[in-house]
Batch of 2 targets.
Target 1
Amino acid sequence: MTLEEKMHINGYVVGNFSDKGGINHLEDLINNITNDNIKSGFSLKEKYKSSLDLKPNVFLYDEVFMNILFDNNIHKMINKATGVNLYLVHIQLRIAYPSSKGGYINWHRDTHFYNNHTITGNIPPVYKLIHYPALDGQETRQLGIIKGSHNFIFNSKLTDMLYARIAKPIIISSDRSSFIFFNTSVLHKAINPVLDDGSVRLIYSFAREEQLSKYDGVLSAIYQKRLL
Ligand SMILES: O=C(O)CCC(=O)C(=O)O
Ligand SMILES: [Fe+2]
């Protein structure tokens, strides 16, 4: 299957950052952040229960967060995979901790519509690229995803959630250099971390030009400048 076919049929593709220098730098930075050795002006804050996000923003913390995308020609890959021009609109660095609910975020589609009346999330759905670094060298289960589920949706939330629980998910594990790029209307969930230290995810969101006004213009302006 071609990249475009995989993206359309499965709702996601898996890739690798080949730039080892960038990865080493990224690992060092993230290790410092998780050890509470954070640059002044930045801190970890709770956005969702059982997780902490680097605030006020990730792209001003260090250039590597943006460089790794350009050093690996990510814009070419994602535009080819989706067939549209996408722009970076958000970067989130998050530590997820074990939760009694079985993961800080359970089965969901970022974009969904149930019972024909409520639309939640973006139309058309935005895309995310997530890197789960293997900081301690251990590759642990991070994300469950139901292959192809972006191509259909049950009318009721109950049925959709039952389907997510019955279908066999694809599991994405933490890894030094790999990432998943997916259509956010696919069913996905964060897997409960095994260690109390939690597990890190670096989340990049990409949207179309017409959707940029909903997001922080500074980040997408920097991104667009680098595309030139
Ligand atoms: O943190 C994760 O593993 C999943 C995050 C997620 O669902 C999202 O960013 O849409
Ligand atoms: Fe999500």
Target 2
Amino acid sequence: MDNFFTNNHNSNIFSIKIKQSLPIVIYPHPILRQKTEDIKDPTKPEIQQLIQSMLITMKNNNGLGLAAPQINQAKNLCVIDFQNKIYILINPKITFFSQEKNVAEEGCLSFPGKFLNVKRSNKISLQYLTVSGKRKKLMAEGMLARIIQHEVDHLQGKLFIDYTNSK
Ligand SMILES: [Zn+2]
């Protein structure tokens, strides 16, 4: 019995449990059309746990981004993994969209195998809360700006198939 406990002393059974990958919600699941609820206190353990699970789920699915509705949580939160940098965006709000736009192909974990050309602003400005609840601003352009726009759309119940006139 002693051995049992000793052997497991340093194992991270608990963290494996909370860091498990979650199933991705596939369109047309209704939650993908729901508007999300703001997160009042990002430091709450259940929110921190949700963020960890989202990061693992994004990584396991080779996603560039993942929004909470895609793991069946109507919460205003998304994560992005772009050029070896992780962005955790809580209650994100895009405050500026450049007039200049570009068209590029996008995929979405909730639409396996579907790729569409979507027209989006080249540059954006964004406000959001960090994991510790601090207000932050971010300016982004190019591919990062595109990913952020795609993920923030998810948080409003908007999907890339809605950009039918993108040419
Ligand atoms: Zn998506």
